[in-house]
Amino acid sequence: MIEYEYLKPKNLEEVFSYLKSFGEKATLIAGGTDVMVNIRNKKIAPEALISLRNLEELAYIKKGEDAYHIGALTTHRMLETSSLVARELSALHDGASQVGSVQIRNVATIGGNICNAAPSADTAGPLLALDAAVVLKGPNGSRKVPLTEFFTGPSQTVRAHDEVAVEFEIPLRMGEFGSAYHKHARRKAMDLPILGVAVSLEMEGETVKDARIALSVAAPTPIRAVKAEEFLRGKKGEEEVFEEAGKIAAEEASPRDSLRGKAWYRKEIIATFVPKMAFRAMERLKNR
Amino acid sequence: MSEYLFVGKDIPRTAEVDKVTGRAVYINDLKRPGMLYGKIKYSEYAHARIRHIDTSKAKRLPGVKAVITGYDIPDVRVGFLKDQTVLKKDKVRQFRDEVAAVAAISPEIAEEACDLIKVEYEELPGVFDPFEAMKEDAPLIHEVDARGRPIRTNVLPLPWKFEAGDIEAGRAKSAYVVEDKVQTTWVNQCCMGTSGCIAEFDMNNNLTLYNQTNVIFWDKRRILEYFAQIGLKNSKVRVVNPIVGGSFGTKLDTDIYEFICIQLALITRKPVKIIFTREEEFFALPPRQPAVFEIEQGCDKEGRLTFRRATAVLDNGAYTSWGATTPSVMMMPISSLYRVPNVYFEAKCVYTNNIYCQAMRGYGNPQATFAVETSMDRLAEEAGIDPAEFRLINTNKPGDETPMRLKITSCGLEECIRGVKEKLGWDKKRGKRNGRGVGMASLIHVAGGARVYKSDGHGMIIKVDEHGHVDVMSGGTDQGQGSPTALAQIIAEALGFRPDDINLVFGDTAFGLWDAGTHASRHTFIAGNAALKACAKVKRQILELAVEKMPKIIQQQIKRKKRKDPDFKEPDLDFDLISDPKNLDIKNRTVFCVKDPENPYFRMDVSRILREALDVGTGESKVVVAEAFYDPPTEMLDREFKGNLSCTYAFGTTGVEVEVDEKTGEVKILQLYAAHDVGKAINPTLIKGQIYGAGYMGVGYGLTEEMKLEKGRVMNPNFLDYKMLTAKDAIPVYPMIVETDEKDGPFGAKGIGEPGLVPTAPAIANAVYDAVGVRITDLPITPEKVLKALKEKRQGK
Amino acid sequence: MKKITVSFTLNGDPVTAEVPATWNLLKTLREYFELMGSKEGCGVGECGACTVIIDGKAVNSCIFPTAEVEGKNVVTVEGLASKDGTLHPLQKAFLENNGVQCGFCTSGMLMSAKALLDENPDPTEEDIRTSLSGNLCRCTGYVQIVESVQKAAEMMKNQS
Asked: What is this model's ipTM?
């Protein structure tokens, strides 16, 4: 039978204290949209849930002098309704606003989305394309991990069991990029992507100065298509170039056949949507 | 014909206010005192022998009141072919096989007890494809039949074979012939309210079953048959509906969980509730019947159909429910959709270790219409005739008798085809092959009852009390289509009352007269006709009482007025005018004199008259009540599956414009016109609701929905991976109501519940072909299939 | 079995519940408070039949831990009508425009719609469909539900 204690620490110190006493027997819970489902489906059976919800100070979207700071407890709904995110971190807006449904977005947090580390997480691709880093706090201090090093496998990250993700940091210069994220799904809501494509571009006139391409559900973890990015640098932002980048990105990906989609189809989608998102990123930059 | 007051109007369903205030009681909400919760333990293999079942730990769990296996209950076989027992004890034949069940004081404890039951299996090779299952060396799913005789094949002994005319003669007359193979897969009904029931015995062994079933009287009969075999010969059964959270075909059989619930209630002597989780709703409930069709059609040079030959193989799954009878309905579009003189149809149902199937909206018609309408488009192309024109050349017409001996009375098919063609801009848009295309498909379905059982009747009791309130006790059930409102309109119109005066009560075998069930889109037609019969009797009673009582009431009124005002001048009234019921009528619940309608003395509320009739003070007290049992003038299908089993037939056409993304294979529906011949729209808003809902379900069937089975296991038993459309997946559906005034229907009405879904998928398939020149012949038409076909086409395959 | 005590506002009234720590809010509403209007359609936040409003936001109560409702303002379908029984414009509109068929999804639809209209009294059709995208319906095809919400928005604008 499902049985656990529900703990509501008032601050991070209390969180660490609970994590220490329960060890692997406790699970952190924020919005709960993953944890509650996993418990009900018997995927996990913790003896205690340590709720992060009361740490309201960890829900914020700030543009600082050095970087954009997004608290880990920021809900997808907050990201969806933030004009700052829509304007300057557009890919993240795209990803966050398409997660599940309004009900899910009202409680689910970006920290949960990333730490749960499903290959299909809709904020993962955008954050990768925005050079994000995760700030992890533990009982012995904190560390900053670039998102490119954060995921180690499906639902696996470098976060230690006694660490809590507290913030996502995006370098200020990424605000100079135009970005876009495409979630390829069978339905327009309540769906996971079969394939996610996030592109961010820094332009110098008509030329691509710098590029990031992030793909989700295209490999065991969300990945950057670095060869395609390299190809784009210094080239003109036009159809032939973007299409070629799409083809290269598709080759870099290693999607698999799964219940939700076939590998060959996923590669087609990468090749089709990298150029589309590149154009959108470019357009958004122009219109700013 | 004078204007109706209520029929044809958009009367709102204000009577159903409980549904918007959270007060409607569904089976999920119903509680009985002392109630226990039942849970079922399912098989862990698709095909295996059961070696041992250990329930000892489960029995010892505190809070558990009963644990049963096939060894604890009598070995009674159920289902229409009697090919399964309630709990399986020798062999499991599918993943959802019910191996044990628990009743406990909470659902959590019941679930934990199920986990504690240990079953030892010896796995057997499984077969998951009907063609494989038909092979000589295929493992046998069933070794003996209901009578214990050995079975040697997985092919069911069902007689699905239909022949009319002469196929070879038809073939000889053909200038063009096409052959196609199409297939459809399992889809789930996805009722938002999950399945469940509460079984409760009294101390005399009489059962009350609170159940969402649409066939309360068939449920009762099947349960009594079961009782007879388990030693409960004198028990009575009452089946009661709570508010039903959707049906779409799931509630026409007596499911295994119902029998399990009854056994648990019998053993514990307490009310027991079983409610399915959503996962169980996907993996433990019979879905729509899949089918593989081979279809051949021919036409002459003028485009007139010469013959149609089809065969189907149905994956019957491990046991049998109504899915195995869908061929009897498939015969309808195959023999009777469009005029076709020579027809042959044969269907084989084959046991496999997959999930078995039941009814789902359309009951075989959507599957067969996908075959017929794919073939029609192909034949039209072969003959060089526009597909809409081709359908018009062969359209059914009023007065036709089809090869199945269906007598077509009203038929608006031609109007539907033309209407859809015009709205779509068919001539301008067709044939461009530029990524956008149009396609259409039509349907024929029963719409005036369906004599699948020997009685297709509906019983109704109508009483009017001394307050003028009408209580209607109907033997039917409600699934949410709005029949309480539609029937109230019919009854109000017939009686001369108002819809607000009418209270409909249904869904209880204790006070309802018999009804064959709310299925086959029959309810409004059959119940409506029963209502008209009963209303005629009720109205006559009221008017006879009016003739009897009105003079006295009027004279009392005059006396009172004189007493109040001595100068009051007595009116000159001709009481002869109200001496005959033929001279009276009722409107707005007021009786009035036809020859002197404005005379205030001759106008009286029905309640005044009925109170006078009741409160007599002598032994002459009277009430108003009448019953009617309406069984339509139809016949059963004979041994050749021919016969006019319905009073009238529904026709309709769905036309779709699509845009296909040639890079992703995604099909976007730009517009969907659904034209339906409904006879008469009793309530246009309710009808549109059916067309929208069925249209969406049809789009899902055509584009996104499929249950994914891998070696018999349902891999997507949840709403995340079973792609039912959301509100954001807006499909522009435009209903077009065509009225042909069916003379045998109540106020001219015909059924609409299922037709809305039937032609949607083939219309989409035909439109995709028009858009990009690829024809997808297996549903759903997923982007992968389209993209793959496009690539193959580009490569010249 | 660990129990928790939570105090919060439920449909305008201050309440306290003592329930097992594992109970989600849906179970607490249905079993402890016997408010059966919110339904379990899937139990995993995928269908919206359990939608309630917490501090103005639509939430799937089947995956919302009861423990987290402390101090919050919860509104369920039972709290839609006024205390004197006057139906909320949304309730009226759903009945008048055939936005209800079997009714199982209706409670959740009403709450998602209310959360929307309380925040945005003048929604476009797109806004309405987005706010209802987490509420599945099998009967209606959503068309008359969207129309009902539009009519309700009109009614509410005319009232104020």
From this structure: 0.98
